[in-house]
Design goal:
The protein is an all-alpha fold. It has a domain at 23-97. It is built from five helices and no strands.
């Protein structure tokens, strides 16, 4: 899922954890699933930001560097305004867009 097109809230939202954990039956497992997905999103966002800022990498000091810094600041502000990775991961989980599997539970079912 593209994190830039998410409908996750930009602010922290109080959630009913019992309702969220109905799928897994375990609150801690649900938190672990959301946490791992949040880490994946965070790494993706960081790589994307670094790739965009790498375009501005300059090893020469000159007057144009001031103008490049403005563009860098705009890019950084855009990423700061995006919802945090945990909010995006939680929204994805609630919408059923996160695939998860517990091998221990699957082993016990056999």
């Amino acid at each position: 899922m593209d994190y830039r097109k998410t409908n996750a809230p930009a602010n922290t939202v109080t959630r009913d954890m019992m309702k969220m954990s109905e799928d897994t039956g375990n609150i801690y497992e649900t938190v672990m699933i959301v946490g791992k997905r949040a880490n994946q999103i965070s790494v993706e966002m960081k790589q994307d930001l670094e790739k965009k800022l790498q375009e501005f990498a300059s090893y020469n000091d000159n007057l144009e560097e001031v103008f490049e810094n403005r563009e860098q600041i705009e890019i950084s502000r855009y990423y700061e305004k995006l919802p945090k990775s945990t909010l995006i991961a939680t929204q994805e989980y609630l919408e059923g867009k996160v695939y998860h599997k517990n091998p221990v539970k699957d082993k016990n079912n056999f």
